[in-house]
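In this supplementary section we document a worked example of the pipeline. Step one takes a protein sequence of length 165 as its only input; no multiple sequence alignment statistics are reported here. Step two produces a three-dimensional model, which step three serialises into structure tokens for compact storage. The input and output of this example are shown verbatim.
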Amino acid sequence: MKSISFLAIIALLSFACQAVPPMTSSPESSQPAAKEAVNYTVRVEWKDAKKGASFIQVETTEGQFELDTLSGTTKINDSDVPNTIKLNGTLTELSAEKGRLQLFLGRTVPYVTSTFVGPGGKNSSSYSQLSVGLSSTFIVTFGKPLIVQTDDNGTVSILVKREDN
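The serialised model returned by step three reads:
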């Protein structure tokens, strides 16, 4: 009886030892190398025939970015209503020289939704903001400007720089 139990244990151990494959590499070497983080400068410049050149610029890493900034006001009745410039999108590096830039470039425009006579017989208005602009995807070459719009009013260009450390 002892010999049967002893044989059973030996068979079980030999089976268990064969079931575990030998390790040929360390766990660290099987993981992919971490991608080095890089900063990018995204600059959008527009040249207006009447106002000259203006730009908006953001420093970001690969991924999503968003920038909203004030650009002036619009007078509605006796109130100054703010206008904003909006730049948001996603930057994906395709190689050390090129990237895919999905972006929205636009502004808010206030518009009157209703008018009424306020206290003292003064006209007043309610307004909302409408976001208008360009939404598109571009393949950009880092460091080289890309003209995305040109017409009688001016030109809009995008420059994405890869800031190597």
